[in-house]
Each structure stands twice: as structure tokens, then as C-alpha cells.
Amino acid sequence: MKEFFQGISPIKFEGRDSKNPLSFKYYDATRVIMGKTMEEHLSFAMAWWHNLCASGVDMFGQGTADKSFGAVLGTMEHAKAKVDAGIEFMQKLGIKYYCFHDTDVVPEDMEDINVTNARLDEITDYILEKTKDTDIKCLWTTCNMFGNPRFMNGAGSSNSADVFCFAAAQAKKGIENAVKLGAKGFVFWGGREGYETLLNTDMKLEEENIATLFTICRDYGRSIGFRGDFYIEPKPKEPMKHQYDFDAATAIGFLRKYGLDKDFKLNIEANHATLAGHTFQHELRVSAVNGMLGSVDANQGDTLLGWDTDQFPTNIYDTTFAMYEILKAGGLSGGLNFDSKNRRPSNTAEDMFYGFIAGMDTFALGLIKAAQIIEDGRIDEFVKERYSSYSTGIGEKIRNRSVTLEECAEYAAKMKKPEQPESGRQEYLESIVNNILFS
Questions:
Q1: Residue 78 a catalytic site member
Q2: Plot region of 416 (φ>0 → left; ψ -120 to 50 → alpha; else → beta)
Q3: Average pLDDT over residues 376-385
Q4: How far is residue 398's CA from residue 125's CA, in Å, rounded to a whole number?
Q5: How far apart are CA 44 and CA 98, in angstroms?
Q6: Least C-beta-crowded within 10 Å: which of 69, 196, 260, 290?
Q7: Kind and range of the H or E element at 82?
Q8: 8 A C-beta contact, residue 386 and residue 424
């Protein structure tokens, strides 16, 4: 098979003092932390759309990176070249998972979905053939139901029943591909499930139709043997001004309202969290305490820019707090997918590797430090003590939900007034984090 990334050897762990840019400083796949290897904790995945497709195009300029991989763009030869290049890329980085939208892996036929589906059959056969003797697997599949003009008003939320049915057909094929490739999950990325103005919108109808789409997809998936998780990926504002999947709490409420919470979990993206006005850690915690933390899109945004920049994660605080939540939740059913793309001026093959190395090292260091915070115990002990009034007496009855309003009122009357709550000591706790991070 042709070597696409010539001159780049498999990336090895060389330790924090290495000056070799094509080496891992913190990601040691076999290192055991809290009973599991780094590879098991992190389950890194390559996102087809950014790594193999994104050429640096933005709203102001054409692409700067060549992602043709020696083939003519928009052909099945190019589709197969991306498979070959992707496998080589993953093997050189030691990445075991990939994920994709349907139109990432094949060119869409704009006139006939049957042609597109035949191409998907061909390329998934090719993927299975090329990964047969490797340990590379599919993390999840999804469908691009946002790029084509037909989806200008969304997929499940479209005002057109014809478009709804077309979206359902795409999802059907996507779920079949998930089964065929042995994927852990299937994602609904609601890129346009929302509205611009209520003047032309029937919100109740749109929400109910989205639920119908999810329900029939769930039922079909289970009927053909799909045992993985269905995921919603919360995303605020962009591109629609008001999106029905704004954040984790909104998505969870939607799933429970329509009885989908037993089959669906959330795929949380760091950049989407900040666009919603939350921290990455917050969205992970909300998902975890509701039993719906599934998978993660690993990236970061730029707080000075108001859109989804999908940068490689390099902020150690963010990845430490993220891995703290993931460890406390018992891990992910999915994995850590790098929904990250090189900056437009970073346009060489080497830059593709530098981006992944930076992201993998940043999450690896976050894992190391999160485990140290947990093993140190001071923060967990502080939180436990802060809520200790709920472990006995009236507090215990509140926690057991055995208290009455009259009991609370009688208790308050005897107190006359409560004592001031203990200090939250935020600065002290943040200094503990700094001490662990930089010791």
C-alpha cells in the first residue's frame, strides 16, 4: 500500500524531557492509572471530517492544505485514498478508533440517494477489508444532515415532510453502517435543528417531529441488532440562532420528555460547552449526574471568537477537569474523538501529526493530574465535609426524602435563625489544583 506520510515514523513515547516534536511527552499507552491503561481510559479516535477532509477553507478564503492524497477530489478513488491515508495515520499515532459522517467517506450524489448508498456499501466494505488485520475499530457513525441545501431548516425539524423522510433514509443507512462496522454508537448531530424566528415556526410540531425521528431510528436500530448507544451532541446557537439541543440539560430534558433516555446518551463537545456559556467540566458533570455521559468531542474554542473553531485541545486545566469528571463517572461508554482541525496556516502533513500529538499529550497529562487530584483526596474530603449537615438529623431526613414541610418549619422555629454556612474556600481549592498541576 502507498505510504502517504513519508518520512514520519510511528510516534513513540519519549517522556516529558524529549525535544523530538514527533514524539509523545505524556501519552504512554501502556501506563496504568487507577487500574486501567492510558489507552483504555482515553480511547482516542480520529475524526474523518477534519483530519482527512478539512483543507483550511473558511468563510473568507479557499483551502490551504492538500487533502487529495494523490487522487481526484470527489471520486471514489479519492474516498479509498482517504481510507488508506487514515489507516496509516492512525497506525503511526497508535489510535484505535475512527468516526465519520456519511458524506465524509463518499461523495454524495446530489440527484439520487440510491447512488450514494451504493457508494457507502462499497466504501464500508473497503474499510472492513483494510482494517481486517489491524486493531482499528469504528467508534461511531453519523450523518451529514446539515450541509445540503435541503436541510436549510433542519432534518427532523424541517417544515417539509419530504425532507424529514430523506433524513430518515440517511439515518437508516447510517445505523446499518454502524452495525456493519461494529460501532459503539450512532450520533445525531443536530447542526440545524432549530429556528431563526418564531414568526414562521411551529416549535411544538418541530420538537415532536425530532422526537419521532429519534424514536423510529432507535426502534429500527434495535431491530437490526444495534446494541450501542445513540448519542445527541448538544450544540448552541451555531448555525441556527435558537437550537433545540442547546446544552446538556436541554437535551436531557428532551430525551426524558419523549421516553428516549434509556437508549440515548450525550456526546459532549468542549467547544460547544463554551459556546453555550458553560465550562466543559459543567457539561460533563450534568451528563454524568443524570447517567447520560457517553462520549466526548475533544477540542477547544477561542473565547475571543464567537463560533465553533474546533482547535486541538492544549489547555491543561480544561483536560484535567474533564478527566476528573470522566474518572469520577466511571469512564466513557464511547471515547475521546478529536473533533479538531489544524489552524489554516498549519497546512502540512507534519502539522496533522503535531495537532494530534498535542491533543493526545494534553489529555494524557490531564488524566495523570486528575488521578492525582482524586488520590490526593483533599478536594473530595472538603466537598464531603461541606455537605456534612445532610448526613445526620434533619439533613439526613431531607436526603432520604422522608421530611415534611411541617418538620422543616418546626426545626427552623426552634433554631430561630440558622448559622452562617461554612466558607466555600474556592481560592484554597484552586491553589490545591495548582499545586498538583505544577508539582
A1: no
A2: left
A3: 98
A4: 57
A5: 8
A6: 196
A7: helix 76-93
A8: yes
From the candidates 28, 84, 102, 104, which is the catalytic residue? 104
| Whether residue 101 lies in the annotated active site | yes
Over 154-179, what HEC string results?
CCCCCCCHHHHHHHHHHHHHHHHHHH
The answer to whether 125 and 41 have CB atoms below 8 angstroms apart is no
Across 331-422, where does the E strand assignment appear?
336-338
Counts for the chain of helices (H) and strands (E), in that order:
16, 14
How far is it, in rounded angstroms, from Cα 217 to Cα 135? Answer: 29
Catalytic residue, chosen from 41, 50, 78, 101, is: 101
Where in the sequence of the chain do the CATH 3.20.20.150 domains occur? Answer: 29-376
Mark out the alpha helices in 198-314 (DSSP H runs): 203-223, 248-257, 270-275, 280-289
pTM above 0.90, yes or no: yes
28-57 per-position pLDDT tens digit: 999 999 999 999 999 999 999 999 999 999
| Alpha-carbon span 299 to 104, nearest angstrom | 19
Give the N- to C-terminal CA distance of the chain in Å, as an integer. Answer: 46
Residue 101 backbone phi and psi in degrees, to 5: -85, 160
- Dump the DSSP string for 290-316: TT-EEEEE--B--TTSSS---BPP--H
Binding residues for Mg(2+): 233, 269, 272, 297, 308, 310, 339
pLDDT tens column, 290-336: 999 999 999 999 989 988 999 999 999 999 999 999 999 999 999 99
Domain spanning 29-376, CATH architecture? Alpha-Beta Barrel (3.20)
Q: At what angle do helices 349-376 and 76-93 cross, to 10 degrees?
A: 40
Contacts of 17 (CB under 8 A, 6+ apart): none
Cell 467540566, residue located: 281
Query: Which residues carry a binding-site annotation?
Result: 233, 269, 272, 297, 308, 310, 339
User: 76-97: string of b/e by CB count within 10 Å (b at 16+)?
Assistant: eebbbbbbbbbbbbbebbbbbb
